[in-house]
Design brief:
- The protein has one domain (68-378).
- Strand 1 (59-61) and strand 2 form a beta hairpin.
- It is mostly helical and 379 residues long.
- The protein is globular.
- A two-stranded antiparallel ribbon has the order 1-2.
- The longest helix is centred in the C-terminal third of the chain and has 31 residues, at 285-315.
- Helices cover 69% and strands 2% of the residues.
- It has helices spanning 18-35, 41-54, 77-86, 90-101, 105-109, 114-119, 122-133, 138-145, 152-162, 167-179, 181-192, 195-198, 210-227, 232-246, 251-275, 279-282, 285-315, 323-326, 334-346, 353-378, and strands at residues 59-61, 64-66.
- The chain has 20 helices and two strands.
Amino acid sequence: MTDHFNFTDIIGAAHLSYQNIIMYAAAFTFFYLAIKKHYEPLLLIPIGFGILLANIPPIIIHGEPIYFIDVNNPTSAMYYIYFGVLKGIYPPLIFLGIGAMTDFSPLISNPRLMLLGAAAQFGIFITFIGALAFGFIPRDAGAIAIIGGADGPTAIFLSSMLAPDLLAPIAIAAYSYMALVPVIQPPIIRLLTTRKERLIRMPKPREVSKFEKMIFPVAVCLVACIIAPGAAILLGLLTFGNLLKESGVTERLGRTARTAFVDIVTILIGLSVGASASSQTFLTRQSLLIFTLGAFSFMIATASGLIFAKLMNLVSKNKINPLMGAAGVSAVPDAARVAQMEATREDPTNFILHHAMGPNVAGVIGSAIAAGVLWAVLG
């Protein structure tokens, strides 16, 4: 006797659910933010398209649903693309590209800005406590908390090590809040700073020598990785990429790392992260809590950076613009751009972008160290 064949079993439209429609709406929201608002288009467009693919309805074979885009199914090609996310391969490669395109001069010329990058990580540890209070186990809470670093690759890396089952909502929350930096930060900045403070002009930075630019990434790698060995792979490739840029003898490698190489990895990480967001795994109470805690973490990170900058001004003769504290959030370079935008909003001739890149880069280093500490303690 042969099995009864139902033609509708192999028509995806017959199995379309309202959950799929919700995820399509999320994907189109990403497209809107990327294309219309220009919020992180290099990330949001691949992630949004991955979400579309992840929510293609299944067909039914012998009563079982078969998904052709499934990051958990070895018969799907997306399984192998997603492997680089699941095993934490893509984030260090992204850091390599970031290092090759980053100028550490603002941080080298004014090292105290490193403190602002560290202060902005305070939100990570506050959110860790909050996640525990909501009932998450310590490993999951640590992975959720790192969203406050506003660093997508770091969030992916740590969640792949501590909470791979929560990787999709954590990664998408982290990249979403990175993209929404120009929306989230300005109200917090205006609430916690006065117009007089936002008008503070930063002194002209000193000239940084070629030798300093070369020795800085090596010194940061050694010191930071000795303090937090768990951050070695992220900070190691960040500083390696920067040395390729600054050494003067590996320009071809540095140019490749900051262009074609990082572009390829960005496509792979964005598409595969989006493809992990199927309605079955994403539309859960846990995901909603993760997005809520992530937003809280990001706001606390911004506020802590601003408040610490104001405290520094109480004990320092050389005042700094508190907007530097908001730039300590490691969304590079968007947090620095928001600081510049808020400064010129008060005074169109006040240019602080170069200075703001100092704490912005310090924030990248700080979030990687925080991830290394959490991995060492909770892993």
